[in-house]
Amino acid sequence: MQKPRIFLKTYGCAYNRSDSDAMLAILEANGYAVAESESGAGVIVLNTCTVKGVTEQKILDKAKKLHDAGKRLVLAGCLPEANPGIAGRRAPGAVILGTRAISRIVEAVEAAAGGRRVTITARKEEKLELPRAHAGAIARIPVAEGCLGACSYCQTKLARGRLRSYPMRQILCEIARCVENGAKEIQLTAQDTGAYGMELKPKRDLADLLDGITAIPGDFRVRVGMMNPGHAKRILPKLLRAYGSERIYKFVHLPVQSGSDRVLNSMRRNYSAKDFFSVAAAFRKKFPEITLATDVIVGYPSETREDFGKTLRLLGKARPVIVNVSRFAPRPFTPAARMRPLPAAEVKRRSGEASRLCKAVTKRVLLLQVGRKASVLVTEKRDGGASGRTDSYLPAALPASRPGERVEAVVTGATQSCLLCRPAKKASRSS
Q: I need a labelling partner for 69 at 20 to 30 A (CA). Which of 309, 315, 332, 374 fits?
């Protein structure tokens, strides 16, 4: 019997993309071919996200459309794990694959192809023991799953569970394998990389892990994924030292969510606005070229105009280059969903004001790079050119270059979110 072609679409974070890398590798090892589009696939896998209501609605609409068109469907990822009922109502014929059961993707695809509606789950899974595909120069490596938090608005804990860090030895072996196979950018991913190792015996931490990674032979760079400010503060001196390696991108993602301690307490974030700022300031003092990224939720039910003003002031003072501004939307089964929401028009107004401020900061930072030299690691091909990252992880567009190539470039301009570069002219040798 001929095996169906598979189309896999991923929503959400780098961790989800890492899960997709493993599922694709398993499918290909079992003789399945990957289709380039939904129309050419016999089975479609949607690896879903549940962080935002807008994304959830987009996924559900897609699932319903595919179901109504008679497509064979597998729903994987956080959405069916955190809220299994809603996925089943939109696509009642879909196979459900749990977040800790991705090793059983072949079983899920076979069930979908055969028209059997099943739910496949598991309590835990050794993800670093699974095969892993990596596209071009980038390899996404999960270092832990789950978290130690209990944020009032977040559904991801329901899908991913409590923190489970992977052994350092396994992580280092997997990174060494990927580097040997040509990976040039290693993306470390978790729900909170700053919590890495807290439950291991003996205890480890993110700085220990980075020291081990940067000792691996080869030419590569490491992008450290999101870390919550409280955990970053706990290991800050060690972390700053570990970041000193030239192999670590000078990039730090610290989600602040609000500039008001009153709102942070209501969110159950377990750190203060001052904690966020002190960590960000320490990174900037040690590494003036650091790119700071953060996340902000506007319109949280307990947020007053004064609270929102504190968020704007914090953003103006911290000057993050990358800011993910989200309007609060209640997620099912979370404490915040029981709170009385703010008027939608006010939430929209605040979101617009915060976004305008952040875009202005980003544009100003990028324009300051014009005329400077930059070392760019090319990671992807683009139409008519290529894209990559500077040592500070700023996105850069270049003329055609090979993924994995390092280009010494000059910044010639900037868009709202990207540097425009050209290769630097090599100095001519005198005869």
A: 332
